[in-house]
Automatic annotation (TrEMBL):
Catalyzes the conversion of 3-deoxy-D-arabino-heptulosonate 7-phosphate (DAHP) to dehydroquinate (DHQ). GO terms for molecular function: 3-dehydroquinate synthase activity. Binds 1 divalent metal cation per subunit. Can use either Co(2+) or Zn(2+). This is 3-dehydroquinate synthase. It is an enzyme of class 4 (lyase). PANTHER family: 3-DEHYDROQUINATE SYNTHASE, 3-DEHYDROQUINATE SYNTHASE, CHLOROPLASTIC. It comes from Funiculus sociatus GB2-A5. Its cofactor is Co(2+); Zn(2+); NAD(+). Residues 183-329 form the 3-dehydroquinate synthase C-terminal domain. NCBIfam families: aroB.
């Protein structure tokens, strides 16, 4: 079963192709895009060990000249040093304007490869082959690329749309359970902000906490509906001028938690889960969302094996202060995405500091 979703943009429309066995078709699909012959595959050692051979064989069979580089996985490696290694490989292999960088990995590899391709020779082709659930449903779509600054996440970045996103659900079989759950956090996000039917389907599922327990039909539905939600939002607002900001649901406090724990205590999906619980509670406190809906959200987060409380030892004041360096700050005010019903959310900068502190204190006890 194949799903093909169009991301329709004024200048750089592309497709998200979802099907088992897609990895072996990478070369053929890239050939159909009329790309130049030179390709640099960027991956991490673990993913490359599992899937590098299949990807490279497919590219070579289609006539591409293929070079490769592997970089350590993990948010703490999303730095200028890693970026420099991609640039060095691009130079060594004489990548040209018509050449392509292929990101074979999770969100960190995708973000760094995307930023390298956006800036090498002022922009070359880029293809996303996400290998984590989180990257499949979120990070690989929409053209956001970047690296971290020591003071905050993704502060250095660019919008650079991929030529294609190629998703093969088969690669999820080697994904660690904790990483699978991290991806489910982003899927729950889509249910809350955009797709009430997706939310209901997950509520009806007995299990959400690991791939082995998940119905294959539901997995395809999760991938298709999540990608469609992201594509819909990005198509309406490519550069985050308005609507696209709702995709940051759970990310405002989530990013602060990640940053303050130096990306070592919680992963991105776990941080988003904590952020969604906080945002939901803020919305309830401000009488924008009803308590039952908030409880349904939190029950789904718990069913996915995700945290609903702050990591121990985090200073509440430090979290509130960290919000001021968030990318979403506008005119000095922190912007929150808050749900108004399951399937809809708004962006507001009218969240009093004392409400944020009160909610965070409740979540740390």
């Amino acid at each position: 079963m194949e799903s093909v979703i169009g991301v329709n943009l004024p200048q750089e429309s592309y497709e998200i192709a979802i099907a088992s066995g897609n990895l072996a078709k990478l070369g053929d699909r890239m050939m159909s895009l009329n790309l130049g012959k030179k390709v640099l595959v960027v991956s991490n050692p673990v993913i490359f060990q599992y899937y590098g051979e299949v990807a490279i064989a497919s590219l070579k069979e289609a006539g591409f000249e293929v070079a490769q580089i592997t970089l350590p996985a993990g948010e703490s490696y999303k730095t200028h040093d890693s970026l420099q290694k991609i640039y060095d490989a691009a130079l060594e292999n004489r990548l040209e304007r018509s050449s392509t960088m292929v990101a074979l990995g999770g969100g960190v590899i995708g973000d760094m490869t995307g930023f390298a391709s956006a800036t090498w020779l002022r922009g070359i082709n880029f293809v996303q082959v996400p290998t984590t659930l989180l990257a499949m449903v979120d990070a690989s779509i929409g053209g956001k690329t970047g690296v971290n600054h020591p003071q905050g996440k993704n502060l250095i970045g660019a919008f650079h749309q991929p030529r294609e996103v190629l998703i093969d659900p088969e690669v999820l079989k080697t994904l660690p359970v904790r990483e699978f759950r991290a991806g489910i956090a982003e899927v729950i996000k889509y249910g809350i902000i955009w797709d009430a039917e997706l939310f209901s389907q997950m509520e009806r599922s007995q299990y959400l906490d690991c791939l082995d327990n998940l119905d294959l039909g539901l997995l395809q539905e999760i991938l298709t509906r999540s990608c469609q939600a992201k594509a819909d939002v990005v198509s309406k607002d490519e550069k985050e001028a308005g609507l696209r900001a709702i995709l940051n649901y759970g990310h405002t406090i989530g990013h602060a938690v990640e940053s303050l724990t130096e990306y070592r205590v919680v992963n991105h999906g776990e941080a988003v889960a904590i952020g969604m619980v906080a945002a939901g509670e803020i919305a309830v406190t401000l009488q924008m969302w009803d308590k039952l809906a908030s409880e349904r959200q939190n029950a789904l987060i718990q069913k996915a094996g995700l945290p609903t409380a702050l990591p121990p030892g985090l200073d509440i004041e430090a979290i509130v202060d960290a919000l001021s360096t968030d990318k979403k700050v506008k005119a000095g005010k922190v912007r929150f995405v808050l749900p108004t019903q399951i399937g809809a959310a708004i962006v507001t900068d009218q969240v009093p500091r004392d409400v944020i502190k009160q909610v965070l204190q409740q979540m740390s006890s």
